[in-house]
Amino acid sequence: MGTKSLDSLRPTEALEIENGLTLVPRVMLNLTIFPSETASVTKPIDEWQLKRALIDFLKTSFHVPITVPEEDLHIKRFKDLKKRKRVDPVAGGTIFIRDLGFLNSKNEDDLEVLDKKFLDWKSSLVEKMDGIELNLEGVKFRLGVAIPATDDFQGMKKDWEDFYAFGNRGYSRGGSGRQQPDTIVLRGAPSRWFAEPRVSSKPSMLVTHTIFSTFGKIRNLNVAEDNDLGDKADEDDGDIVSGLHCKIVVQFERYRDFYNALKVLCGRSLQKQGSRLKADYEVSWDKDGFFRNTRSHAQERSSRMPEMAADSYKSGAPRRQPYFPHSGYDNSRPKRFKE
Q: CA-to-CA distance for 228 and 219, rounded, in angstroms?
């Protein structure tokens, strides 16, 4: 898949990449549920009723009905309602809108026009949903709606432009000598989708490199099991259990490839051929200098080696070469998937 194809990808268009994976478009919204100003909430909110109210609202409140299956609407109620303040939320969640075919234009609009139409539609969707009141068995609740930062490509672009405008460090430089980002960070994808089949369930550097080469030439790559994310995952996720997500950090040779990769990955989910699961990963740009810090840490350890070797020689202890693991997942304990 060449850069030209990525440049021309429509916002509601799927993209097939390597290893049987497809990037499918979706709109993700974060939800926060507050009691209305007059409501007195003393018992947990009914998650099923709340889901039905939101699904019905999306079906009936827009010129073209928006269809959301119940499994794409996640609500988690908060505990200890008696200790909460009146203004505190009682539940939170996310909603995924995947059926976006109604946004496809019949006219041959250029990509810039299509992008603007899609962004305008998302903004109007949030504006119409944010602040609505839901009546659940006589108790009214107010809905707060926002687009996650990791799904807002234009917001991330503004962040890195502001970041580098003030002289912060970066790897790539544009034609004007201006510093630019070149590294993306992706979290929440299933490790087994980036593993070597029938060899291991751990993510493979080779497989991951092949997949992300879709977007351009890679300078540096790191892939590791993301146990921090897995520990926070719900136990009823079904296809994935705790500890089986991975974190992928990709540094591209060119800023343009970084730009296209982040734009294409933002607002999409991964789907694997033969699997019903859609992996709703998070993607962002690296402002912390992941690979620079990794090299600095390795150099620091290397500088200590002569001292360590001298101490070992003096003490008569056997001299051993230190082992530096190639990537973070090599030392992780194995996990199992649910069958």
A: 26
58 close to 65: Cβ distance less than 8 angstroms: yes
The predicted-structure confidence for 55-94, as pLDDT tens digits, reads as follows 999 999 988 899 999 999 999 988 766 666 767 888 899 9
Cα 19–16–124 angle (5° rounding)?
A: 135
CA–CA distance, 21 with 222 (Å, rounded to integer): 19
Q: How far apart are CA 10 and CA 22, in angstroms?
A: 15
* C-alpha span between 149 and 161 (Å, rounded): 15
For residues 32 and 143, what is the distance between their CA atoms, to the nearest angstrom? 6
Q: Is 248 helix (H, G, I), strand (E, B) or coil?
A: strand
Going by C-alpha positions, the residue among 223, 217, 237 that lies closest to residue 194 is 223
Task: Tell me which H or E stretch contains 207.
Answer: helix 205-212
* Residue 202 DSSP label: S
Q: Tens digits of per-residue pLDDT, 274-295?
A: 888 899 999 999 999 899 877 6
pTM of the model: 0.78
- Ranking 7-21, 195-209, 254-268, 313-327 by mean pLDDT, the lowest is 313-327
Sign of CA dihedral 308, 309, 312, 313: negative
Residues 6+ apart with CB under 8 A from 225: 191, 202, 203, 243, 244, 245, 246, 247, 328, 329, 332, 335
What tokens appear for 76 in the block? Answer: 């988690």
Query: In this predicted structure, which of 175-179, 247-251, 334-338 has the lowest mean pLDDT?
Result: 334-338
pLDDT given at position 77: 84
Tell me, what DSSP letter sits at residue 119?
A: H
